[in-house]
Design a protein that fits this description.
19 strands; 36% helix; alpha+beta; Aminopeptidase; elongated; single chain; 388 residues; 2 domains
């Protein structure tokens, strides 16, 4: 019997054609918006987790449970934790604060809404795939665990997946499929190394007129930041930096006694990232002087990892998209997959549709690809569960 990834996907595509025929854009979109309407900023995902836990229980998943970090787990079969496992996960959190206006609007084939693509659609896909697999009542080679995890974005530091790996040992996990709503057309098989630094400057402070000339925490920090932006970084391995937050002081006529910035450093190669961090720390040392001091702490640390392109899970992910006519490319990113890969768990990131303006109020998803996008996710999970 043929067991190549392409052969398995082709067979499943024929056997499960009734599933593809039953998918509707309306159902996928309605579930995505239902998730999106529940605010879930990083560290405040509780209400959205409540909804997912209720959905898991209503669908009939087994051993539905929430851990101390808010991750929601549901198993396809009883006692699934006692077998080798495939993970299907989607992160609950968004970058938008609680008070964000979450109104959605549709213009032709696009639906706009904060957090709709990243990652409300991914969470909706998790629920819909779980529903399909429960309905099919098929026995799989490995146990399947559906996970809606917390703390993927920003300073969440991938802590949700860290907690998952405490609950399910890495050596038990045969593969992990991570859903990012608008990543269709790409397969992420690499994790970018990320280091986030919190840099705090301290000075005596004082009155802007009476104490003019004293060191200012803000002046010192912005001068440091200006020099950081002048650092040259290599294109290969791709390496980037970004000062994403800067704040300080308390009034216009006061010399600031404290200022803070958050610096994001990334590279596809860990050694290059570490060299960049060393250069930043050297700059900080040079700016430290009488009356002006700096404090540096690590605000985030995402490990790197890579799954070779020949691995069956990568080939299945590429093949599933080929089944819907998409020639997907391989990429690296900073996602929940980083943590799996760093623990030698085979992992890929895939999407459900395409879209744009991620992390902006006018974020959007394309509706024309929703059915095919969900279908390739179903195919991928089924093929992985059967062959890995």
């Amino acid at each position: 019997m043929q067991t190549t990834p392409q052969a398995v996907l082709a067979r499943l595509s024929k056997e499960w054609q009734h599933i593809r025929n039953g998918l509707t854009v309306e159902k996928i979109l309605n579930q995505a918006i239902a998730v999106q309407q529940i605010p879930a900023p990083t560290f405040a995902e509780t209400k959205r987790a409540d909804y997912i836990q209720e959905q898991f229980q209503s669908l009939g998943l087994y051993d539905v449970w929430r851990d101390g970090l808010g991750n929601v787990y549901g198993w396809l079969e009883p006692n699934g934790r006692n077998r080798t496992t495939i993970i299907l996960s989607a992160h609950l959190d968004t970058v938008f604060p609680l008070q964000t206006d979450l109104t959605t609007r549709q213009e032709k084939t696009r639906v706009y809404g904060p957090g709709l693509g990243d990652n409300s659609l991914g969470v909706a896909g998790l629920l819909l795939v779980a529903e399909i697999f429960l309905r099919e009542k098929r026995t799989w080679r490995h146990s399947i665990c559906f996970v809606a995890n917390t703390r993927e974005e920003g300073l969440g530091n991938l802590d949700g997946i860290r907690a998952l790996l405490d609950y399910i040992p890495p050596q038990q996990i045969i593969g992990a499929i991570v859903i990012e709503g608008i990543a269709l057309g790409r397969v992420y098989n690499g994790g970018i190394a990320v280091r986030r630094l919190k840099i705090t400057s301290h000075a005596e402070g004082g009155h802007s007129w009476l104490h003019f000339g004293r060191p200012s925490a803000i002046h010192g920090l912005v001068q440091l930041c200006a020099d950081i932006t002048r650092l040259e970084v290599p294109y290969t391995p791709r390496t980037t930096f970004n000062i994403g937050v800067i704040e300080g002081g308390h009034s216009v006529n006061s010399i600031a006694s404290e200022a803070v910035c958050l610096l994001d450093l990334r590279s596809t190669e860990l050694a290059t990232l570490e060299k960049l961090e060393e250069r930043v720390r050297d700059l900080i040392e040079r700016y430290s002087q009488d009356g002006l001091t700096f404090e540096v702490s690590i605000a985030g640390n995402r490990p790197s990892g890579h799954l070779r392109s020949e691995h069956p899970l990568v080939q299945l992910a590429l093949g599933a998209q080929a089944e819907i006519g998409i020639a997907a490319g391989l990429e690296s990113g900073s996602t929940d997959a980083n943590m799996f890969l760093a623990h030698d768990v085979p992992a890929v990131v895939v999407g459900i549709t395409q879209g744009g303006n991620a992390h902006r109020q006018d974020e959007f998803i394309e509706t024309r690809l929703l059915k095919d996008g969900l279908w390739q996710l179903v195919l991928l999970l089924a093929a992985a569960s059967e062959t890995l």
